[in-house]
Amino acid sequence: MEKRTSGIHHITAIVGNPQENVDFYAGVLGLRLVKKTVNFDDPGTYHLYFGNEEGSPGTIMTFFPWPGAYSGRTGAGQVGVTSFVVPENSLDFWETRLTTFNISFEKTERFGEKYLTFDDPHGLHLELVSRSEGKNSEWSFGGVSADVAIKGFGGAVLLSGAPHKTMNLLSDVMGMEKVGEEGEYVRFRTSSDLGNIIDVKTTAQPRGMMGTGTVHHIAWRASDYEDHEQWRNHVGNNGYEVTPIIDRQYFNAVYFRESGGILFEIATDPPGFARDEPKDVMGKNLLLPPWLEPEREKIEAVLLPAEARVLKEDQA
Question: What is the pTM (predicted TM-score) of this model?
Fold first, then answer.
């Protein structure tokens, strides 16, 4: 059976204080906080989802905020850099915005594309790249209007403990097309117009250590539930140990660790984030799955306040 993923569904990372997390991704980067819920496996921890106006697959960055947790170390077995794509000719706006918020950045180039590279407040490595492909976001927030807003993922840089095995997985199992080599990077592409460019670093890296400022896992898209079942069978038939299908409320998920140590997930596009609250109020209230609703009072008592707010730099 031949399968081809259309690209990234979401990327999940570990960070620190939840309000700092929301202030950066909503307040500075202008993403929409589309869902405020908890880690179903650890209900005393938020699970915060950011994306475009709907939280469409290919735009969703999610976080487990662990206040006071130890810092991680980015390295082999992780996503090294998360790329966001912005509209063409908008990098000047983003240079100015990062400067306004005193965020240090560097200008880099890879495969003929210019990037702004910087870290979030908890050390997560990010970059912005401008491209024409991909639907513009319709979301505006603070000082970020829709015409310059982040569209979604540009892609990711993978740091593997076994780069050639990881690359074989991307091409032979995940169905990505190898489209270039440059220096220490090999580039792969999927069929989608967002979350579609994956660069694998081929040089050896020290082993990463999970903690704040690191990516927990990267998830790939399955178009529907039938496609998801096929993906689970396909990955398992290629020798990987895959979890049972898990209901994550807003998508179904399976997980497996690839040979280079990176935790991969495959997630369904449906049902999406409007399944349990109206689209126009998504992200404002704490949403719990039915089995955790009886514990709401206890859960709310341990969670720190966190809400999307316009920052003072945008209140002029």
Answer: 0.97
